[in-house]
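Internal tracking record. Fields below are filled automatically when a chain is submitted to the structure queue. Please do not edit lines marked as system-generated. If the sequence contains nonstandard residues, flag them in the REMARKS field before resubmitting.
Queue: standard
Priority: normal
Entity type: single polypeptide chain
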Amino acid sequence: MDETLHNEHDEAFAPSASPIDGENDAAGVPEAPSMPEVTNAVDFFTPEPVDAASPGQGVRSPGAPPSPMGQYTQEPQGQAAPSQGQPMPSQSQPMPPQDQFVPPQGQAMPNAASYVPMDVPAKKRPTKMIAIIGCIVVAALVVVGFVFFQNANAQKSREDYISTMETTSFSMLNGAAEAETLSNTIVKVWNSAIFDSRSAYLWDSDIQKYYSDDFNTALSLLFSDPSTQYTVSEIESNQASVKNMMSKLSNPPEDLQNAYNTLMDLYNEYLTLTDLATSPTGSLQTFSATFHDADTNFMNYYNRLETQIPSE
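SYSTEM-GENERATED OUTPUT FOLLOWS
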C-alpha cells in the first residue's frame, strides 16, 4: 500500500509534457535561461565590470579583487573616471579641482612654488641690462682704484719730499757746525800771528803749535795738521751729500714752494760757510765779516725752514 501511494504521489508531481512547450519549440521561441550554478556567494553578488564612462555605476579596476559582498567604490559626482591603467585616487588625497593643471600620466605633480601655467611664458631676465650695469660698475671701480692709487702715490711722494728736505737741512747744519769750528780756529791763528807775533806764549795753548810771526806760515801749519785735514775732508764730504739731496728737491709740491725757497737760501749760506772753512781767502777783516754774516744768516734761515716744513 505504501509503495502504491508513493508511486501515485510521484506521478502526481512528475512534470508532464505540455502542449505549450511543443508549440514554443515549433514557433522558435527560446526557452527561459536556466539559473547558473552558484558556487560562491561572493561571485554571485559581484557585479560584472561596467564601462568606466557610465556615470553613477560602480567601478572596479581591471585585475583588482572584487569588493566584498558586492559593494561598489562609488566615484565622486561630476568627476571623470581615470583611464585604464591609471590608479584610482585615494581618499586621503583628494582629486584636484577641474580648473587646476593636471600633469600627463607618468609626470609628477609640480608643487605650488614651482608651478607655472603652461599658457603663461616665463619672464626672461634682462641679461643685456645686467651686462651693461656690470660694465659700468667695473669701470667705476677701475677709475676709483686708479684715483686712489694716484692719490696714494702723490701722498707718499709728498711724504718722501718732506723727509728729504728735513734730512738735507739737518746735514747742512752738521756741515755748517764743523765749518764754524774750523773758521773760528782760522780767525784765532790769523789774529795771533798778526797781533801776538812776539812770542808763542802770548798765544792760547790750543794754537801754540801753529806759532809764527807770519800769518801765512801760521795758517799753513794749521792746514797741514792731520786733525785739520780730517775736518776739511769731513766738510767736503758733507758738501757732496747735501748737493745730491738738493738735486732731488728741485720740483717741490705746490704747498711746499715757500719751504723750498727758504731751503735754497739756507743752502747758499751753507756753501759760503763751508767754502770759507776749507779755503780761507781775503784779509782777516773781510774773512771774519763774511764768516760772521754767513753764520748768522744760516741760523736765521734754518729756524725759518723749521716753521715751514709740515710735521707729518
